[in-house]
Amino acid sequence: MSSIGASAGAEQHGDAAIRFAAVHKWYGSFHVLRNINLTVGRGERIVVCGPSGSGKSTLIRCVNRLEEHQRGSIVVDGVELTDDIKRIDEVRREVGMVFQSFNLFPHLTILENCALAPIWVRKMPRRDADELAMKLLSRVKILDQAHKYPGQLSGGQQQRAAIARALCMTPKIMLFDEPTSSLDPEMVKEVLDTMTELAQEGMTMIVVTHEMGFARQVADRVVFMDRGEIVEVNAPAPFFGHPQHERTKLFLSQILH
Amino acid sequence: MQPVAYVREAPEPEDPPPTLTSGALAWARANLFSSFGSSLTTIGFLALIGYLLTQLVAWATTRAVWSAMDGAACRQHQDGACWAFVIAKWDYLRFGSYPVAERWRVDVVEAIGAVLIVWLLWTNAPRRAWAALLFFVVYPILALVLLRGSSVLGLPFVDTLLWGGIFVSLVTAVVGIVFSLPLGVLLALGRRSPLPVVRVASVVFIEFVRGVPFITILFMANNLLPLFLPETWAPDRFLRPLAGIVMFSAAYMAEEVRGGLQSLGKGQYEAALALGLNYPRMMGLVILPQALTFVIPGIVNNFIGLFMDTTLISVVGMTDFLEAMNNAIKDPVWAGPTIMVTGYVFAAIFYFSFCYGMARYSAHVERILAKGRK
């Protein structure tokens, strides 16, 4: 079975999917990202955690330029992000994003939500786009919901539809911004399972989440952020087993009861 | 005392609700006949309504004068409507001073327009895209050629000075509605644009036009437009108030649409951008379809207001339907107290039926759009 979205060809191996170099960002006078240096390899799964307001969402929203950084450089799939709208569009075509509040388009059916970008951005014929959408909807196990509107689905189904919608653009990189935070507890697992499957297929992923079980199981590296800076980066086993920094220890003690 | 632990042994059955809490009879009992005083009031008002309705119906039908050569019969029967007047003036009310031999052209334009509008508005009609193409592109050219005349087709030229009556009101309303909505959408988008020049231009236009009375806009369109343009371009006498009504309505439409844009969360924009949609596609495919749906009641409110405002184009010399009615009432052959009342009642029915039609249609569209979306 061909892996969805993962286009890590042999010739691309080795170079980075995303490279942050000395990135700074301010909201007004508030210094929200401070000297971020991080390189995400192709096929790598990164989980970003940290207390609220630590800048972790802002960090991944800089990757597809929903937020602008003011200093430093961000290179995504070999393209440096600047004000050049062409480059931004180029990056957005290759980077899928899943939001905390799903952000499905409520006036379109699930199928239409999924086929919209392939048709209008990739210029795919409608029939092919629908076929692709149906394939991905069956991958996230909501094929039977394809002709319903988002408002008729449960939260977990909506989030899986949102994942399918992002995957329809066959992205090289997937960003997840707290994908399970607004779900009812009984629906968290179905979304995490979908993400785990995606990870197993080799997708490059950056996931902002508080689901430490997911981080342990899926992540190659865990990034801990606090007050706009990266405090600690490590593989999950040492990160959870032997956190080094005081702030990491404090954070983990607060969320792992 | 209640025990601490409890485990259900059999499921609770699902029962129907108690009787007589719903239905027309229960509603009437609860709202109209709940007490002696309430019953008395209900009966009193029903009697009053019945009396007034029978009077009105008798005035409009059995006591009315249906055929007469002049106002004499109507002056004798002052307790009924004078429909003979409306019938006698019907052609003038429809066409104004449009040459009698050429009036078939107006009939053709109206008939084609009616067919296209029904086709376009009928939500289950086949090939509505064709209807849209015909109505928005082919029809305006056809209507212009037919109404004004064309030497190529051998249709004599009819100056807009001679246009008048119902068809002028309809042309004004249709032109106003068709142009003010897209212009309003552009102004609303302009007002939220990150480009300062576009934003300031939109704000200045909207605030200026909203800040002056419609009649002022009409006078300005009538007297200032020709001053700004070279003499050979001098816009037609009917085109000027048309431009005025489009500008005026567009400013209000823009604020209505802006309200819809603001009711959408940031998430919809971000999701569209994250998928790689550019600005025009984000707006056209994701944002505007939702924003416009939210503000249908306001947009239709503007359309209805615009339809009423068409009566004001008479201040710059156009003879719309109401002005034609005013002229007809002044005819000394048809002088009499019931004639004026009949004329204005008829005009009221005309305006009401169009506006009520628009209101009902928008309610229908809202119901369709609400279906399935929750």
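qc> Chain B touches chain A through 22 residues (CB under 8 Å).
qc> done
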